[in-house]
Amino acid sequence: MSPKQNAPYVKDETPGRKAWCSCGESVNQPYCDGSHKSKNTGKAPIIVEITETKKVAWCGCKQSKSGAFCDGTHSKL
């Protein structure tokens, strides 16, 4: 996968902790791969607990007011 994008990353998720990339530098979008540390972005991942199997729209533009989840902000950029 590539860095941030102007659309959500829609994924089928299973229960568990997920680390959403908030800086846009991870090569494993939408998940954190630690790039924020090596690139000194000043950002950290947002940890999300998924409690049930479901489809998730992860924010791809990194500007969502809903944190890790898409709120449509990308369509206004």
Summarize the entry for a quick read:
By secondary structure, the chain is mainly beta. It has 1 helix and 4 strands; from the N terminus they run E-E-H-E-E.
Structure characterization notes:
Helix content is 5%, strand content 26%. It has one helix at residues 35-38; strands at 9-13, 16-20, 46-50, 54-58. Strands 1-4 form a two-stranded antiparallel ribbon. The longest helix has 4 residues, at 35-38. The chain is globular, with a radius of gyration of 12 Å. The model has no long low-confidence stretch (mean pLDDT 94).
The total strand number stands at 4
Radius of gyration (Å): 12 Å
- Spatially, the strands of the biggest sheet line up as 1-4
The average pLDDT score comes to: 94
Task: Provide key terms for this protein.
1 helix, mainly beta, 5% helix, two-stranded antiparallel ribbon, 26% strand, globular, single chain, 77 residues
Write the layout of secondary structure elements.
Elements: E1 9-13, E2 16-20, H1 35-38, E3 46-50, E4 54-58
Antiparallel strand pairs: 1-4, 2-3
